[in-house]
Amino acid sequence: MGAVYLAEDTKLHRKVALKILPPELSSNQDRLVRFEREAQAVAALNHPHIVTIHSVEQDAGIHFITMELVEGASLDAKLAPPGLPLSEVFEIGVSLADALAAAHDQGVIHRDLKPANIMVTKDGRVKVLDFGLAKLAHATAAESGPRTDHLSAMPTSLVPGDSLTSAGLVMGTAPYMSPEQASGDVVDARTDIFSLGVVLYELATGRAPFRGKNRVETITSILRDTPPPVSETRRDAPRHLGRIIEHCLQKDRDARFQTARDVGNELRVLRREVESGSATTRRGGNRVLGLWLAGAAVVAATVIVLLARNRPPRAPGTSVAGVAAATAAGTVLGTGAAASPGSVAGAAAEADPRSIAVLPFVDMSQAKDQEYFSDGVAEELLNLLSKVPELRVAARTSSFSFKGKQIEIPEIARQLHVAHVLEGSVRKSGDQVRITAQLIHAADGFHLWSQTYDRRLDDIFRIQDGIAADVVKQLQVKLLGAAPQARTTDPQAYALYLQARQLGQQFTAEAFTKSDALYRQVLQIDPRYAPAWERLGVNAVNESVFGSASNADAFARAREAADKALALDPDFALAHGLLGWIAMTYDNDLAGAAKHYEHALALDPSDVTLLRASGVLLRNLGRLDDAIALMEAAVRRDPVNATSLGNLATCLVSAGRFDEAIALHRTALSLSPGRSGSHSGIGQALLFQGDAAGARTEMDRESGELLRVLGLAMADHALKRDADSDATLATFIPKNEKDWAYNIAEVYAFRGDADKAFAWLDKAIVYGDPGLSEIVTDRVFDGIRADPRFLPFLRKIGKAPDQLSKIEFKVTPPRDAPANRMPRRSLTRR
Questions:
Q1: What is the sign of the dihedral through the CA atoms of 405, 238, 705 and 291?
Q2: Contact (CB, 8 A) for 762 and 609
């Protein structure tokens, strides 16, 4: 846009930057007037992170800008893999977001935000430069002149990194352009948010998210590709950094952050969590082997991760990519690489005509602050429809994985293997709510039915019941007397409940505290609302998982909450499941857990989380065939849940089906790159197959640091590098013995040191390590099972074969859609 010179203001005796505008711009009067007007608007911004424009001048036909002299280096000079330190990522990111927010508040859009236009001064301050491509958000098409920003106007000589600007063209820079900018659409302030996401990605990884050999390939990548997650190249990245960046980089501008101020606020919150230590992804050990993941159903979302055989650190829930992993579990075609959506045996050619997926409803409220409400409405509808025995409903995790993704309805239906899709929107204003729902036949995209409900908020449960009944009627399902009914409460209490549930799914200490407080408010309004008690119990367990509370305190509160929920509603299946989880993991009462899960599944046989929890219990009882069959059923109902696939893979390792397990782990990683436990699971399978070198490579890629270290200790032993293995353990044990006693015993068992293995197993009992629940089917201990001490040890902890065989646990598998049916195995006790 011009040449910049160092100059001196002789009147004020200060150094300034003098920007001389090119002659072709100066000679175009319309463009010159518009540019001067926009430059004047930028000059009025007066923000510490935006370069100050002092004046717009002209002399002898030469037009120039005088502006603040910024001494330092452009940001692009600092960028290189693996990215900047996190403290700098946050400092620069917050500064950029604040600068854009200030500009947008004045109606100024930058349109060319990139590292080359960002200066970092010698004292570390951030300055945004070159608003030369800026436009006023309120400029009309007539004021803007002819459209010159379409791809057809781009000079063909440009390559990635070059400005897409030639004489008279105001464009942008290819790798940093938003999809709407790249495709020639009219842009608004959200184009800067996309560019900010690109810059944040580079700050965090040192790499550009969208790349190509030339301009066309780069723009094609922007329009088409999803960049690799930040966690794939940045192990120390806190769990929400990737989510914030991904939210900025949504192709659809409506799916992005709507303001730069929102981006800055989220970065500030995350920075505080990182600085306080509350953003860590684990609690220094494996006291509990996984998460209680987000979802309407509660218990098994925690329990499923228990199947990860080395019990990874608490990795926060990750977003599931909007692609199918496996429509059915079983024999996976191909090994050693991620299975494609169509590579899983048992996939059906046609969906059951009585199947449906409920997608997240869109928040259409003016302030865009009702996402918790719109998600909650969709989730409650999903739960209602799930109660219809004749209707097969895709699980919440799978349906909600498409949130914010620009994927057509037929493709969503194909990936979820359903014949119908229910979508809708929510617009809430005060105590008025408008809910629009549409039932779509997926094969052709035709609307079978649509309806708009305008109601007061106190009619919300009637609206949910009405939509559910209408959908069931349209699908011509024969109901048993009546449509499913929503569990009602006071409307204000229900709104607070939805907010509390969303907060609880953030898995931070601060969020749990706020969520608990909101649930308490719900119970003050409606003391008989059982779901609020049950969710308080879920929060308590999560607080233990993430280190916000001790085991004793957390599980005492969880038990109290579950008991109160059941006192209000004795048939509340999820509360029975919560008691089953407590019995299995904290009380070491497998018989009691079996009774709770049998009762829960009798009340709600189709709940996916209860199915997975029951699969965990079957595995802990040593009934691998039954556990695998039940987990296969859960995967069929929730086919794009990476954790479900990983858990099934863990069971397959225990069963010696290593190739299938490796393929499923790789599929889980393709859905959730960086997923904790998957690389180590592959590593163990390779160790059992005798591929020590390959195992070490996988162990080294494990995202869970402590799990990675223990995996390397085993792999080094297999490679006959015992000195390295010894050194690893010598460093690891003093810091982690109380939380990782069971896993340390695993390493010694794998190394063939039975004495030390049993010594550490005894310590695991003393420390109350829940990893002991896995020992019956843990193949790492195969080398010492013949030791005369092993059976007495199992008997001491109540897990000898004769003790387990006495535990009755009968599970009836859910009815599968005919097209999805797979060979079934008996699920009764062996």
A1: negative
A2: no
Nearest to 112 by CA among 8, 182, 65, 44: 182
Q: What is the residue-wise DSSP string for 113-144?
A: --GGGEEEETTS-EEE--GGG-EETT--HHHH
Handedness of CA 259, 263, 266, 271 (dihedral sign): negative
How are beta strands 126-128 and 118-121 bridged, if at all? antiparallel
Only one residue has tokens 């085991």, namely 551
- The confidence band for 329, taking pLDDT boundaries of 50, 70 and 90, is very low
Q: Could you tell me which residues come within 8 angstroms of residue 340 by beta carbon, excluding any fewer than 6 positions away?
A: none
Peptide bond into 82 cis (omega under 30): yes
Q: Which long-range contacts (CB under 8 A, 24 or more apart) does 294-297 make?
A: 294/505, 295/396, 295/397, 295/505, 295/609, 296/379, 296/380, 296/382, 296/383, 296/396, 297/396, 297/574, 297/607, 297/608, 297/609, 297/610
**Three-state SS for 722?**
helix
For residues 634 and 371, give the distance between their C-alpha atoms in angstroms, rounded to a whole number. 28
H helices, E strands: number in the chain: 32, 15
The residues facing 356 across adjacent strands are 393, 420
d(CA 780, CA 750): 6
Query: Model confidence at 444, in pLDDT bands (50, 70, 90)?
Result: low
Q: Is the dihedral of CA 630, 636, 642, 645 positive or negative?
A: positive
Four-residue CA torsion sign, 4, 5, 6, 11: negative
* pLDDT at 673 > cutoff 50: yes
Give the number of other Cβ atoms within 10 Å of residue 152's Cβ.
Answer: 6
Q: Which of 264, 236, 305, 316 is nearest to 508 (CA)?
A: 316
C-alpha distance across the termini of the chain, in Å? 77
Tokens of 262: 């929102």
pLDDT in tens, 544-600: 655 566 667 888 899 999 989 888 888 888 898 899 988 887 787 888 888 888 888
Decide: 761 and 790 in contact? Cβ < 8 Å. no
- What percent of the chain clears pLDDT 70, i.e. is strictly above it? 72
Nearest residue to 199 (alpha-carbon basis) of 92, 110, 319, 91: 92
Question: Cα 185 to chain center, whole Å?
Answer: 30
Tell me how far apart the alpha carbons of residues 121 and 99 are, in angstroms, rounded to a whole number: 15
Q: DSSP character for 387?
A: T
In a 13 Å sphere around the CA of 41, the CA atoms on its Cβ side amount to: 23
Q: How far apart are CA 269 and CA 286, in angstroms?
A: 27
CA distance 599 to 580: 10
DSSP secondary structure string, 19-78?
Answer: EEPPHHHHT-HHHHHHHHHHHHHHHT---TTBPPEEEEEEETTEEEEEEE---EEEGGGT
Rg (C-alpha) for the chain, rounded Å, is 29
How does residue 493 score in pLDDT terms, banded at 50, 70 and 90? confident
DSSP 288: S
H, E, C per residue of 509-547: HHHHHHHHHHHHHHHHHCCCCHHHHHHHHHHHHHHHHCC
- Which of 155-169, 223-237, 760-774 has the least mean pLDDT? 155-169
SS3 14: strand
Reading the block at residue 501, the tokens are 């549930």
Q: Alpha-carbon dihedral of residues 503, 507, 511, 514, nearest 10 degrees?
A: 70
10 Å CB burial of residue 4 (0-12, 13-18, 19+) is middle
Of the candidates 507, 435, 467, which has an alpha carbon nearest to the alpha carbon of residue 240? 507
Q: How far is CA 735 from CA 247, 738, 763, in A?
A: 37, 8, 15
Q: Is-contact 415 340, C-beta < 8 A?
A: no
Give me the helices (H) in 277-408, please: 299-303, 371-386, 396-400
